[in-house]
Design brief:
The structure is a homodimer. By secondary structure, chain A is an alpha/beta fold. Helices cover 40% and strands 16% of the residues of chain A. The first copy, chain A, has helices at residues 4-7, 12-18, 26-39, 70-82, 93-99, 103-122, 127-140, 156-167, 180-183, 187-191, 230-238, 254-261, 294-302, 309-312; strands at residues 53-56, 171-179, 198-210, 213-224, 245-248, 268-273, 305-308. Chain A has a seven-stranded mixed sheet with strand order 4-3-2-1-5-6-7, sandwiched between helices. In chain A, a hairpin with a 2-residue loop joins strand 3 and strand 4 (213-224). In chain A, helix 4 (70-82) crosses helix 6. The longest helix of chain A is centred in the middle third of the chain and has 20 residues, at 103-122. Chain A is globular, with a radius of gyration of 21 Å. The interface between A and B is medium-sized, with 31 and 31 residues.
Chain lengths: 323, 323
């Protein structure tokens, strides 16, 4: 059923072509209505293209984040790949836990342990070398439960949404807690988002001349964690202009959504709600990864768009071989 | 005289229209030849638009930097404006030096003194409040020797070069040691460079809810100095792709030029050389601001383009009232 409100909006037909994996329903309707409002020339809510900035969290918003963040899977595989060069790791509880798949010991090591693993696997090489490591890993690794390459664990409806926004003059950005250089090698192909529109957590790099050739060495030191209150900070730093649309899926995205909502003029704030235990996962208030309670409450209180995966999406993942 | 080499290049005619303030000569020829090489379809040196990234230092490259960096003039004026609220400054040597125009005492305070002044004048307000301070100051302040608004102290030939590059599918960026939020309020109007393409030094900001309204507070803590070896680091962080063109004017730009030069395929590295004591300033190896010795030697050794202001530019500044 096409609502009366929708029938009078010009590009709505275009959305049917552009968003085939979205069910007709409130989420799709809210998206199309928003895009129509800000792109209709002469409308009092028209927004010029230079201000059509759309922010997307990555893990759990654009691609799957269960059972562990995909960058963590990369990290564990790196530890295994490097173990032969590091016989001493066998005697270290943290690395031993990874090598033996001891999830309980890993969880006990907490954030500190994860950081230590991250630094051991993400630093000590040039930016170019790291880029190759990421690409090589993605070329062969597969998701343990979804049984597909990680770059095929993206959400097809969100890929369509990104393309729909760009077709309507938006610039689409990723604003993720994930590593900026972990994402940039593949986001253009997976989402159509070029490196310069990828914002994320950063580690320190140092410019060096190596046999006269300039390189950037990745150092084992976190510079910035692009999560929670860090997200509006990094949006302001990288872009210098407030977005008009933001999409997340967890409490880590709340401040980005608040920052977006606080601008003047039309705004769109969205949350992907993982409600589909059958086709993906169902988790929110109790999950250690992608916990969603505070942001869900605020979204409901303020009328932000909550996209229930189970209800709003006809398909979750791309058909293999079709991309 | 049009050289034979130039005559066979397609868009050369366009350059005559686009670069009217440039003398016919080696600098203009090098620019036009480079742009022609990378934009000619079917040429083995063709570069797709997504990789046509051009970096420009700001102080001394796009606008004047003598007798002091323009941001320092802003800082001194802020100290004077805030002095009434800070009677204690009268008793502090550093602030007293600013209030009394004691250049010698200021110079003696060194970089540490300047940082202290910067933090006292650039922090303690929201990002939006700071933006207004910068805009308000620029609306009324004038350059003490050039007798023109600071935003009219831009180099007309460089403004034309930026537009010429954009007309040829380049994305133009600023990569400056100056404060990122000091530049963003005015670079779009002055240079056609939008906030998201301005990279610079950053101070810490903190997301806060003020009476329920999200703001970003500017804190008195330097996060990153975007100079020297910091420039390739920030280019990699903000853009994630190596530029094919870089322009600077001092040793602080050397690493950015080296990083640009080290990529594969056609590259352009340029230096503005301040050789015009009459129309602007003449300085290089001995100057405390914008010192140019090491980078000049390397440019000459490697055949980078050195633009002698006196010889290469017909005019230096825009005609007042024409912009």
């Amino acid at each position: 059923m096409v609502s009366l409100g929708l029938a009078c909006l010009q590009p709505a037909w275009a959305a049917d072509v552009a968003l085939p994996s979205w069910q007709e329903g409130p989420a799709k309707r809210a998206i199309v209505q928003f895009v129509t409002r800000v792109t209709s020339r002469g409308s009092p809510e028209f927004v010029p293209e230079s201000e059509r900035l759309a922010m997307f969290d990555n893990d759990g918003t654009l691609w799957a984040e269960q059972p562990v963040y995909i960058q963590m899977a990369f990290m564990f595989d790196r530890v295994k790949a490097l173990a032969l060069q590091h016989p001493e790791w066998r005697a270290q509880q943290l690395f031993k836990a990874v090598l033996e798949g001891d999830v309980k010991a890993l969880a006990a090591s907490g954030e500190k342990g994860l950081m230590e693993l991250a630094m051991a696997t993400h630093a000590g090489m040039t930016t170019t070398e790291f880029e190759h490591l990421v690409k090589d890993w993605l070329a062969t690794a597969t998701h343990p439960r979804l049984n597909r390459p990680y770059t095929e664990c993206v959400y097809q409806p969100m890929v369509e949404l990104l393309a729909y926004l760009r077709a309507n003059g938006f610039k689409t950005y990723i604003v993720s807690g994930g590593g900026i250089e972990f994402m940039r090698p593949w986001t253009e192909q997976a989402y159509g988002i070029p490196p310069k529109q990828v914002i994320g957590s950063t580690i320190k790099t140092r410019f060096e001349l190596r046999d006269g050739i300039p390189v950037l060495m990745r150092l084992p030191e976190i510079v910035f964690i692009d999560d929670k209150a860090g997200k509006p900070v990094s949006i302001n730093k990288f872009i210098g202009r407030r977005p008009i649309l933001a999409f997340g899926n967890s409490n880590g995205d709340l401040e980005m959504l608040q920052w977006t909502a606080a601008g003047s003029g039309p705004r769109f704030m969205g949350l992907v709600h993982h409600t589909d235990a059958e086709r993906e996962w169902a988790y929110d208030r109790q999950s250690s990864i992608g916990r969603l309670d505070k942001a869900l409450d605020e979204a409901q209180a303020r009328g932000w768009t909550v996209v229930s995966m189970k209800d709003a999406w006809k398909t979750i993942f791309p058909t293999l071989g079709e991309r």
